[in-house]
Amino acid sequence: MSKRIINTDKAPAPIGPYNQAVLHGNMLYTSGQIAINPTTGELEIAEIQAETTLVMENMKAVLAAAGMTFENVIKSSIFISDMNNFSKINEVYARYFDEATAPARETVEVANLPKFVNVEISMIASL
């Protein structure tokens, strides 16, 4: 089984030696998305709900490039720099999933994230 690299200009370009996602068989493994505006290349981290929305929209674009939607997501990993932002991040995240069929998930507070953003999200999805 070979892997297929997934890239789209509708999400931020990788800032290191990795790809936006890899499709292996029917499984999609995404890299973490942060709040980089794919059009301008600028970070948008002034307000946590707007930051989280941009992260989710970037993830939506990566999923779409693989022919998938949030309905295909089976696991999410959320990394946040301040657990006090959990409820605001969760409020935005919840808009993208039907609670009855939402994926498995973990949310972890970390010391720092790339470019010192407040939230990074990665996902695993299946066709």
TrEMBL record:
| Annotated GO CC locations | cytosol
GO terms, molecular function? deaminase activity
**Would you say which domain of life the source belongs to?**
Bacteria
Record-linked Pfam families: Ribonuc_L-PSP
InterPro entries per the UniProt record, alphabetical: RidA (IPR006056), RutC-like_sf (IPR035959), YjgF/YER057c/UK114 (IPR006175)
- Belongs to which family? Belongs to the RutC family.
Q: What is this protein called?
A: Reactive intermediate/imine deaminase
Protein's gene: yjgF
